[in-house]
Every structure is written in C-alpha cells, then in structure tokens.
Amino acid sequence: MRALSIIPVEGIGEIAVGDDLAGIIASAAELRDGDVVVVTQKIVSKAEGMLEAVDGDDPVSHKKIVERESVRVLRRRGDLIISETKHGFVCANAGVDLSNVERGYAALLPEDSDRSARRIRDGIKARASVDLAVIISDTFGRTWRRGLTDVAIGCAGIGAILDLRGSNDTYGREMLVTEVAVVDELASAAELVMGKASDIPVAIVRGIPNEWLRKGDVRSEIIRPPDEDLFR
Amino acid sequence: MRALSIIPVEGIGEIAVGDDLAGIIASAAELRDGDVVVVTQKIVSKAEGMLEAVDGDDPVSHKKIVERESVRVLRRRGDLIISETKHGFVCANAGVDLSNVERGYAALLPEDSDRSARRIRDGIKARASVDLAVIISDTFGRTWRRGLTDVAIGCAGIGAILDLRGSNDTYGREMLVTEVAVVDELASAAELVMGKASDIPVAIVRGIPNEWLRKGDVRSEIIRPPDEDLFR
C-alpha cells in the first residue's frame, strides 16, 4: 500500500438550488484520475432543491417532516427519533437537518444519493476529463458508541464494499467474513478535513488502489436487508 | 484545514509475546510531533500475550471462549454472537478472533486498550522524543449497514470525541448536538492503507489540528452508558 492524501477543497462557497455541483467542484479542485471526491449531503440536497420551509421557532414543524420522511420508527426518546427512511437508512430524525441550512429551512436527504453521485461523477468527467469516484457523505450516530461519524449515503465509480472473502490472511488461512465498507471509511477520512463548523463541504482522497474503482452503489451493497438484520 | 497524510508503516514483522511495540514502531517509522499512530488490536493482543489455545477444527472451542468473554449476549444467529464485552464494547464474537493469528490460537481483546495506548505512547516518547497520539483499532460490524469498518478501542494523547457543541454553523446558528468521534474516523482512515490481508498493522495519520491533541480515552468518552442506549 502507498500513502493516501486527504485534501480539503476550498472555495466551494454557498450552494443554491440548481447549481452545477460537478462544474463547481471541477473548477475549485485540481482533480486527477483515480481520486475519490467526497461531497457532503448538505450541498447535494441544496443543489437538488431538497429543502423544505420549517418554522424554526416551532419544534413541531421539524418533527412533522421527520415523521413524514420515516417509513418506520425504531426508537423515540425526547425529541430524538431513530427511524428508517424510504432509502433504507436507519438514522436520527430521518436525516432531516437544520444545521448549515438557511434559517427557516430544513434539508432533506437526496431522493437517490447513488444517482446524485453518478451525476456528479459524469459531470466532472465531461468537464475535466478525469475518471474518478464520487461519494456522498452524511453524519450518522451509531448504536453503543457515542459521537457521530461520516458514512457514505451514495457512491459512483467505486465499490462500496471491498470483499476479501477467499483471500488469505498472513498465516495463509482463508478469511471467511471480511467485507470492508471502504466507502464509509473514505467518508470518515474525508470528514477529518471538513469539520462541521467550517465551510469545507468537499474533500479529495488521493491514492487508493485502482482495483477499488469499479461500478458500485450504497443502496445494494451497504444497506442491510431487514431479513439479515438483527436490530430492526 | 490542511491536508492529511495516511502513511502505512512497513517492516513491523511478526509480533510475539513480550515484544516492545513502542520500540518496534519507533524504529520502523519516522515519527513527528503531532502524528497519530494507529496500531491494530491484533499486534497489541499478541505483544501483551492475550492469546488463548483453541482447537481450530472444533468450532465449540472458539465459541466457549466467546461466551466467557461476553458479559451479555444481545443477539445470536447461527455461529454469530453479538455481545457486550467486559470492556463495554458491543461487537461480534466478543472481539475474539482467529484471523491473522497463528493456527491453534485465538486473540482476545487487550485487558484495557486505553492503557495499552498510553504505554505505547509513553514508550515512543521515551525512545524517539516525539509527542504524539496513539489509537488502538479493531474491526467491528455495524447495525443496519453491511460491511466492517475500523474503530478505536483505545487511545492516548488525543480526545476521543471532538465536541463542537456551542460553536456556530456557517449560518451563525449554534450547533446543539455535534460530537464527532474523531478517533473512530482516524481508525477508519488508517485501515484504508492497512488492508486485512496485508501485513501492515500500523499506520500514521499526519496533519491533524494541534487542538485535537489532549488527554482522552475511549472508555469514558466513546462507550455509551446503558442508560443512554436505545439498542441494548
């Protein structure tokens, strides 16, 4: 393995409905073949117009949107709702978020974040003639562990899971269950240079092995089907 | 924010009981002040002698150790047990692992991974005169999402959680619930250059903000107390 670089992309600026994210990213960053471009959900939702008016002084207004965006509520405690979204994500408040959004609006998750990733990837390819991967990231909580980490909610041009089943460990023993969620690890790595309070919504991870670059998506690879799931 | 580098440390070699990990790491890598040294649990467990003989041809032998290392079993399906360990981790098979261990042995989790991290950190400081952070990483599954990611099971010299409560988002609105589990994101970032089948058990993350370096530990910061927990 060689070293990786995690590079914050400066100068993205405010994103508004209809903005051409691919063009903006291609102008702001020196992109190379094989890069992984990690884009936060917030600016994808803004560009795609996934904003909804909310009365910021009325918590019920926010809660109503969360209930509507949930297909199933798993747990409630106080104002917190852990629910499954129509996309299959299980997260707090159905991914509906008031932070880093203009006052009076809530940001919903993109309709289809894998499709959003594909569009951005295709747009960058058309503009900058580079072949790379795109990940849409969001900030989720975890069971049993405090604190939030960024995970991938969509991807394109990269396998979401690196399947090492069938390869051997260093003792020559076949590894039976080792599927690494590399898109989630890449989203977490990118978050380290973004920071929640800063205005860096895009980062590049440079140097991943070329074998990781393939057709891939979060929906079919990462979302655990309910029948496999022990905690739903 | 500036760019980060994730650097694999080559040449660690096989680790045996009693080996001086701090010395081995300090010899293998050019370490700098402010680096984060991520060390996989497997070599820490080996150095600390946390190995137990197991009959590799008898799955019951492995299962007995898993049961003993569990203080509470949350779910069972087939051979898989999701349980809480005495350290407070909730993970598959109580962290007892047969891969990348000599045949005939299972690796248990270190007794106290925060203490292990502190010892390695102090040892490196004594040998190489550098002030840095150490994270002990392990590979865990997640609820609702397929695939494994590396997380921190111990740390020293770095805050496990970056608490952004009280800081403002880019719209000047105070962020209420934003505690980032940076040690878990750093463990995931490091995994990207390790690879499960390769023999890279140590990686360096270089370039994190100096403010992140402080006294910290996984046990008190990351482990979610049962009364806060909605899924136990």
Q: State the strand order across the main sheet of chain A.
A: 1-12-2-8-9
Residue stretches of chain A low in confidence (pLDDT < 50, at least 5 long) are none
Total of domains of chain A = 2
- CATH homology superfamily name of the largest domain in chain A: CofE-like
Oligomer: homodimer
- State the order of secondary-structure elements of chain A, H for helix, E for strand: EHEHEHEEEEHEEEEHEH
- Derived from helix and strand composition plus strand pairing, the structural class of chain A reads alpha+beta
Number of helices of chain A: 6
Output the CATH class name of the largest domain in chain A.
Alpha Beta
Which percent bin holds the helix content of chain A? 25-40%
Output mean pLDDT of chain A: 92
Strand content of chain A: 25-35%
- CA-based gyration radius of chain A: 18 Å
Biggest beta sheet summary of chain A = 5 strands, mixed
CATH architecture classification of the largest domain in chain A: 2-Layer Sandwich
Which fold does the CATH topology of the largest domain in chain A refer to? Answer: 60s Ribosomal Protein L30, Chain: A
Strand tally of chain A, please? 12
